[in-house]
C-alpha cells in the first residue's frame, strides 16, 4: 500500500554531490560535481538502476535447450555494496539507504515475477517474459529506505505542503575544497492527506511523483446487520438484491470509446496507404512522427477510460463494504466467458467454416471487458479483509438468471427479455438482474447454513481474533480460516 504525492520542487543544499568520473572529448577522465537538482535526481535514478542490474546478473535461467542453468548476465557481478562504492565512481557518493535498497527489491521483484509466471502457466495462460534487466526506457526511479529515520525524512510544512529530505555525503577525496562534504536533496511535495508511518519512499522524478510505502489502513465500520447479493452484468454494472442498481458512468466511457475508434481508424489508414504490414510500418521505421503522436494520444485515452472504471470500482466497493456485513457474489469464470466462440468446421467443404456466432460474441466480449467485472471482486476481497465484521462470499453462478427467486422454478422461458423476468409457474414479475441478485443472496445463505451444519467452519462465529481481522465467510479459497 502506498501514498502517492506530487513533487513540486527539488533543491540541493550543502555541498554539490560528486557524480563520478566522466570522459571528455579528448579522452581525459574528469570528476564531475553538480548541484543542479534535475541532474542530481537523474544521477540517483541511474545509480539505483545500475546497482539493481548488477545484482540481477547473479540470477540463473535455463539455456536454449533447457539442459542447464546459466547466469542471466554475460558477466556475473558478485561485488558487495562496499566494493562497488570503491570501484564504480558513479556510486561513490550515493546515500547508503539508496544503494542498499536494490538488495531487497531486486529479490522480491524476481520471486514475485517467477511466482506469477508459475500461476499463469498452471492456468494455461501466457506466462509472459522472464524478468530481465531494468531498462533505461522504463520510468526512471529510485528507492530510499526510511529505516527509522536514517534517511528520507518527511517534514510537514503546512496543511498542503511537506518536504522529504534525502541526505548524503561525498567522501573526503571527492569533496570540493571549502564546501564541506554533506549534501541534502530537499523534495517539496504537495499533500492532500496525512502521511502515515512509512518504511521507504520511491521517487519518480520524470513522472513527477513520490510514493510513501506503508501499511494499509483498516476500514472503520460498525456492524449493520445488512446483507446483499450482487449480480454483475453488462446492462447494469451491479444489481443489488434490494432492487437498486449501480452503473458505470456509461456516457463518459462511450465518448472516450468513440474517440479511440475514430483515431484508430485513421491510424490503420496511415498504415494501409503505406502499402506495408502494420509490423513493417512501425518496426521498419517507416512511420511518421504524427503516427507516433497519435499512438500516444490513443494510449492516453485508454488510460483515461481505465482510470474512470478504477475510480468507480474503488468508490463503490468502499461504499458496499461499509454498508453491508455480508456481500455475496457469483463466482464467475471471466477468462472463460471472454473466450472466442468455438470454430465450427464445415463437414461438406473441408477447410471452410460454418457461422459460429463469433461476430456477436466479439461484441459481447467487448462489453464484458469494458464492464471489467473482475476488478470489483478483487477490490471487495481486499477491502472485506480489512474491515471489521465484513465478509465476502462467492457462490455457484449456474442458472441464477433463470431461476425464480420466489418459488425456485428454473427454466429458460422465465426470462422474458434481457430486462424482464416473468416466472411461468407463479407469475412473479421482476427485473431480471434483481431476481438474479436475490437468488445469489439466497445461495449465500444456503452455503452458510450447510457450512455450519458440516463442521461449524468457524467463519460465522463471532471473531475472536481481534477487531481488524475480517471474518472471511466460507470463501476460504483465498484465506482458509484456521479456527477449527
Ligand atoms: Zn416462480
TrEMBL record:
Pfam families reported for this sequence: Cas12f1-like_TNB, OrfB_IS605
UniProt-listed GO biological process terms: DNA recombination; transposition
Keyword Cell inner membrane: no
Alphabetized UniProt keyword annotations: DNA recombination, DNA-binding, Transposition
Domain Probable transposase IS891/IS1136/IS1341, residue spans: 219-338
InterPro entries xref list: Cas12f1-like_TNB, Transposase
The keyword DNA-binding belongs to this UniProt entry's keyword annotation: yes
A molecular function (GO) term: DNA binding
Top-level division of the source organism's lineage: Bacteria
Location of the Cas12f1-like TNB domain: 376-440
Assigned protein family: In the C-terminal section; belongs to the transposase 35 family.
Name this protein carries in UniProt: Transposase
Organism: Bifidobacterium longum
Amino acid at each position: 500500500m502506498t501514498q502517492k504525492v506530487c513533487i513540486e520542487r527539488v533543491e540541493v543544499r550543502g555541498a554539490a554531490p560528486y557524480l563520478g568520473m566522466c570522459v571528455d572529448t579528448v579522452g581525459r577522465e574528469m570528476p564531475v560535481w553538480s548541484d543542479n537538482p534535475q541532474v542530481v535526481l537523474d544521477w540517483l535514478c541511474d545509480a539505483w538502476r545500475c546497482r539493481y542490474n548488477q545484482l540481477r546478473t547473479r540470477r540463473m535461467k535455463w539455456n536454449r535447450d533447457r539442459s542447464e542453468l546459466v547466469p542471466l548476465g554475460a558477466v556475473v557481478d558478485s561485488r558487495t555494496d562496499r566494493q562497488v562504492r570503491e570501484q564504480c565512481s558513479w556510486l561513490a557518493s550515493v546515500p547508503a539507504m539508496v544503494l542498499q535498497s536494490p538488495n531487497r527489491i531486486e529479490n522480491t521483484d524476481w520471486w514475485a515475477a517467477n511466482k506469477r509466471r508459475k500461476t499463469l502457466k498452471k492456468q494455461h495462460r501466457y506466462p509472459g517474459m522472464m524478468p530481465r534487466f531494468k531498462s533505461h526506457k522504463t520510468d526512471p526511479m529510485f528507492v530510499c529506505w526510511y529505516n527509522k529515520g536514517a534517511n528520507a525524512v518527511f517534514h510537514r510544512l503546512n496543511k498542503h505542503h511537506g518536504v522529504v529530505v534525502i541526505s548524503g555525503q561525498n567522501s573526503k577525496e571527492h569533496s570540493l575544497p571549502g564546501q564541506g562534504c554533506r549534501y541534502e536533496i530537499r523534495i517539496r511535495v504537495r499533500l492532500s492527506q496525512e502521511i502515515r508511518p512509512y518504511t521507504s519512499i520511491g521517487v519518480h522524478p520524470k513522472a513527477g511523483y513520490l510514493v510513501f510505502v506503508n501499511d494499509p489502513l483498516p476500514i472503520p465500520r460498525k456492524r449493520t446487520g445488512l446483507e446483499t447479493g450482487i449480480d454483475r452484468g453488462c446492462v447494469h454494472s451491479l444489481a443489488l438484491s434490494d432492487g437498486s442498481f449501480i452503473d458505470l458512468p456509461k456516457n463518459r466511457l462511450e465518448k472516450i470509446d468513440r474517440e479511440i475508434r475514430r483515431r484508430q481508424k485513421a491510424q490503420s489508414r496511415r498504415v494501409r496507404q503505406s502499402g506495408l504490414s502494420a509490423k513493417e510500418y512501425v518496426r521498419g521505421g517507416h512511420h511518421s512522427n504524427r503516427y507516433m503522436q497519435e499512438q500516444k494520444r490513443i494510449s492516453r485515452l485508454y488510460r483515461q477510460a481505465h482510470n474512470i472504471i478504477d475510480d468507480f470500482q474503488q468508490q463503490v466497493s468502499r461504499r458496499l463494504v461499509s454498508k453491508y456485513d455480508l456481500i455475496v457474489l457469483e463466482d464467475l469464470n471471466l477468462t472463460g466467458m471472454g473466450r472466442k466462440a468455438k470454430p465450427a468446421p464445415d463437414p461438406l467443404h473441408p477447410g471452410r467454416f460454418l457461422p459460429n456466432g463469433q461476430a456477436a460474441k466479439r461484441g459481447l466480449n467487448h462489453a464484458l471487458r469494458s464492464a471489467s467485472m473482475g476488478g470489483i471482486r478483487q477490490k471487495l476481497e481486499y477491502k472485506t479483509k480489512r474491515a471489521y465484521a465484513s465478509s465476502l462470499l462467492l457462490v455457484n453462478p449456474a442458472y441464477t438468471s433463470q431461476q425464480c427467486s420466489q418459488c425456485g422454478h428454473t427454466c429458460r422461458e422465465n426470462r422474458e427479455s434481457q430486462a424482464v423476468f416473468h416466472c411461468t409457474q407463479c407469475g412473479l414479475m421482476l427485473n431480471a438482474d434483481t431476481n438474479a441478485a436475490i437468488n445469489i443472496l439466497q445461495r449465500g445463505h444456503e452455503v452458510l447454513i450447510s457450512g455450519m451444519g458440516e463442521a461449524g467452519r468457524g467463519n460465522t462465529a463471532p471473531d475472536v481474533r481481534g477487531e481488524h481481522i475480517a471474518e472471511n465467510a466460507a470463501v476460504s479459497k483465498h484465506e482458509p480460516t484456521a479456527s477449527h
